[in-house]
Amino acid sequence: MNDLNYPKDKPSRILYKAGGWTSILFLVYSLVTILILVFLNGGYPETAKECFDMIRENRFEALLQLDIVSVIAIPFYYLLFFSIYRALKTEHELLAKMALFCTLAGVTIFIAGVNLVSILIVSDKYHMTASPVVRQQLLAACEGMLASDMWINTGAIIRGILIETGAIIFSILMLKTLIFNKFTGWIGIITHGFDLSSIFIGLFYPPIKEIFTMVAGPLYIVWFILIGIRLFKLARSNENKEVAYK
Question: What is the pLDDT of residue 148?
């Protein structure tokens, strides 16, 4: 392995460690998401009334079904992708910057599209008022928010395209360098390729989209494990070189 690929500074070591732990976070997130889908029949409610009743009956379970886990986890992509960028930028800086821009822009669009807190506020107002007119207005407001759910609105499509495109570019760069092994690169291309394909296919034939998503899901678990292992190794290699050069 080429030693020049390992910057000998403490910030890089800290960043790689943080990226490794973030990979573990996303591994746990993936498993928790699967459990929610299996045991809670996860997913957004179909109507505003169903959503309000769900929140009133069990607020914690409602938050899980409204995907609060994703709201908490997805912003950590900033850290994960930046640590991958830091590892890959030495030899292919322009492409690495393009990939970083795509992924970070996608995460930002995701955060901007989250309306979970707004749904909770509208739900609380709905249950506190006795006015039929106000209730109808609040139901209509919630219907609009459900229709612009962070996973299905136009911003969600753009976000998905940006993140998956950036991740694919990073994966291609992994094939061109010795920083990550080729297996990790190919797993990344396949995983994010399936996810990117599901976005376009879902616009025309949603049933096929589910198949692509089901294939990509388990592959994400493998990808997060491989990325995490490599980032931890980079952190240790970086730490050893810091000692050697002191």
Answer: 72
pLDDT at 150: 62
What is the Cα–Cα distance from 200 to 101, expressed in whole angstroms?
A: 21
Please name which of 24, 18, 8 lies closest in space to residue 82, comparing C-alpha atoms. Answer: 18
The encoded tokens of residue 206 equal 């949603």
CB 34 within 8 Å of CB 217: yes
Where exactly are the structural domains of the chain? 8-237
First to last CA, the chain: 21
Range scoring the smallest mean pLDDT among 40-49, 64-73, 136-145: 40-49
Lowest mean pLDDT among 36-50, 71-85, 98-112: 36-50
The residue assigned the tokens 């292992």 is: 229
Residue type for position 47: T
Contact by Cβ (8 Å): 195, 166: no
Give the Cα separation of 48 and 168 in Å (integer).
37
Q: Which residues contact 139 (CB under 8 A, 6 or more apart)?
A: 48, 49, 52, 126
Angle at 22 between CA 228 and CA 171, to 5 degrees: 50
Residues of the chain with pLDDT > 70, as a percent, come to 87
Amino acid at 144: G
Calculate mean pLDDT across residues 222-235: 94
